[in-house]
Design goal:
- Helix 4 packs across helix 6 and helix 7 packs across helix 10.
- It is built from 10 helices and 5 strands.
- The protein is globular and about 45 Å long.
- The protein is an alpha+beta fold and about 230 residues long.
- It starts with about 25 loop residues before the first strand and ends with a helix.
- It has 3 domains: about 60 residues, Nucleic acid-binding proteins (OB fold (Dihydrolipoamide Acetyltransferase, E2P), Beta Barrel), CATH 2.40.50; about 70 residues, DNA polymerase, domain 1 (Orthogonal Bundle); about 60 residues, Helicase, Ruva Protein, domain 3 (Orthogonal Bundle), CATH 1.10.8.
- It has a 5-stranded mixed β-barrel.
Amino acid sequence: MPPMPLPWPFAMPISFTYKKTMIATLTGRILFKTLDRAIVDVGGVGYEVFLSTDSLVRLPEKGGEVFLHIHTNVREDAITLFGFLEEQEKELFLVLRTVSGIGPKVALAILSGLRVSAICQAIVAGDLKRLMTLPGVGKRTAERICVELKEKVAHLSHGAVPLPHGEREVVAAEGSIVADALSALTNLGYPDSVARGALGKVKKQLGDEAFDTLRIEVLLREALKTLA
């Protein structure tokens, strides 16, 4: 016996059409910051935004106003906001994500390792050694980045945004002495931005070459001196 036909409206084909609402920018006040994100109050609504360490350091303190470029990452189980102080940082983030094996969290970690112009200069120059100091980047990933992105990021390799207060760039690559010192300072209770600022001051005082040869105990002692 053939199945009975379904009554209307169940017999009609059903299709859904929807548009994604993408957040492109946010303007609001900082509620608080952690090691990898900030909560931005926009008209009474708190938005959780993940940022690179460099951007977090340069954010205003609690209550300060901020404008952020936003990438809205949509998945079946979550909607995540990634924020950037400059459009160039967002552009590099999106370009990095086109490389196989680099997701949004890895792309943000890469942006935390070096300034945008420095990353792009390394890519254009094929400097695998420098790229391999970045979190989540091994030799194969570094090679893919150079091959696939060299032409795409050449225009971003110039015009770096100056570091605040004339500080020197501090690369806290995973497993490095600087990363260990940063971890030690934050474990002592210093905010990430304060700890990075102290390490930057030591680098400025000693110069790149001397800074890179410091033992962990010496680096910590010198950093603590700047915080005294």
